[in-house]
């Protein structure tokens, strides 16, 4: 017969494992954006499993599997539940950190481009800064590529040369307001989680 302590353990385990089930369901969708969601979900699950990361996690290939078969058990005997929940959480945590050891700039790009998660408040400050810098770099590279394509298009189409400006026109300064599009985007407030980021960008 299952003891009260075992029922309590099963209840706690159900709550923990339901996170994995929910993540699997959400990330298995095909009618909404998921690429920017998986990192955020992964971090949330890891934080939930954290008991004492400095002791529980060692990043090496010899880390035991969380569901490794440790032998036959006699189900008629009561299970020693004291500390078992933390032990299971520690193994799950260690295995997640084994397969997802660190956040990389590349994996955070989809999240920073999603107006629901662009603040990257779930990532370390240093990683957030690196991701923002990398986004600037990608943006400038894309702008440069578009400009080059546009110039090549004008050359190939044999467009007429531009009309020469008069001396007074040359002295007139263009009224252009310089701004950084990436910084402007990052300063905008995030949108609700149930919003569609694709509609926001359109």
From TrEMBL:
SUPFAM superfamilies: Ribonuclease H-like
Family annotation (InterPro entries): RNaseH-like_sf
Region: Disordered, residue numbers: 141-166
Protein name, entry field: Zinc finger bed domain-containing protein 1-like
Protein species of origin: Rhizophagus irregularis
Taxonomic placement: Eukaryota, Fungi, Fungi incertae sedis, Mucoromycota, Glomeromycotina
């Amino acid at each position: 017969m299952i003891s009260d302590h075992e029922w309590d353990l099963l209840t706690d385990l159900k709550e923990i494992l339901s996170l994995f089930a929910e993540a699997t369901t959400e990330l298995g969708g095909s009618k909404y954006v998921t690429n920017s969601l998986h990192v955020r979900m992964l971090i949330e699950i890891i934080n939930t499993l954290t008991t004492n990361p400095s002791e529980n996690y060692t990043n090496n290939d010899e880390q035991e599997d969380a569901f490794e078969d440790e032998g036959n058990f006699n189900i008629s005997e009561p299970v020693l539940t004291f500390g078992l929940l933390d032990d299971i959480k520690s193994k799950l945590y260690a295995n997640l950190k084994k397969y997802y050891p660190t956040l990389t700039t590349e994996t955070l790009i989809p999240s920073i481009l999603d107006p629901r998660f662009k603040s990257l408040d779930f990532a370390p400050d240093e990683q957030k800064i690196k991701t923002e810098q990398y986004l600037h770099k990608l943006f400038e590279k894309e702008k440069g590529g578009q400009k080059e394509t546009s110039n090549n298009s004008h050359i190939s189409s044999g467009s007429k040369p531009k009309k020469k400006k008069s001396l007074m026109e040359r002295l007139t300064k263009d009224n252009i307001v310089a701004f950084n599009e990436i910084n402007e985007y990052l300063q905008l407030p995030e949108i609700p989680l149930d919003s569609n980021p694709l509609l926001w960008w359109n």
